[in-house]
Amino acid sequence: MVLLLGSIDLLSQFASVSLLAVAAASPSLFARNNPPQPPCVYPYTKFVYSGCFADSVASRALPFKADLEFTNATIEQCTAYCKGNNYRYAGLEYYGQCFCGASVSAVVAPEVECNFPCNGDPTQACGGEDRVSIYQDPTFPDADDVAVSADFLSLGCYTEGDSGRSLDYSQWDYLNISAMTTEMCLTACGAKGFPFAGTEFGRECYCGVVLGNGTVNAESD
């Protein structure tokens, strides 16, 4: 049975976060902690190029590195992997390192800096030194066009992480926090491909792929 947090009255008023997760056929709510899925082998809409972005080991533009053969890397190989694992974005860096993510956490870099040829196809560009060529799945709907709250299960009230945020991606820049509702937060996170959403302080919305930084269930104390 799908449980919903249905109103603003249920938002946390303290330093804890109400967490929700995308419902799935599997009994586990921690889908991103499961082993990665294989690349998509079925026909799908081609990813579109989004641009060249800055990247570094300390601050990844896309947080999830694909376990793919580096010496044969191509754009198609990387996008198929990210598509098969339900990510919105795919990125290639330094001749073919492949990364995936639900959102891009980086700034745009000059296009000329993404000029390294892909190991598997030298006619394709695979990023550069600390530069990643990012592609987007155009079939992901915009937040304004989809209602996804029925796809979320309530996980209850959780503490913030002891060394950082429980959920990494703030939606402050995208949502009207003065009119925040649970439905608004769920729609934004779900439309961007995040399996977790959380509300805090009555007006803050966060999204994430995993529960991080030592967060625990506050209701179990």
From TrEMBL:
Give the residue range of the signal peptide.
1-25
**Places the protein is found:** Membrane
Q: How does the UniProt record describe the way this protein sits in the membrane? A: Single-pass membrane protein
Question: Main localisation, per the record?
Answer: membrane
The domain of life is: Eukaryota
What is any one of the record's Gene Ontology cellular component terms?
plasma membrane
The WSC domain extends over 46-138, 151-221
Q: Name one Pfam family in it.
A: WSC
Record flagged with keyword Nucleotide-binding: no
Sorted keywords for this record are: Glycoprotein, Membrane, Signal, Transmembrane, Transmembrane helix
Mind telling me what this protein is named?
WSC-domain-containing protein
Look up and give the organism this protein is from.
Answer: Paraphaeosphaeria sporulosa
List the top taxonomic levels of the source. Answer: Eukaryota, Fungi, Dikarya, Ascomycota, Pezizomycotina
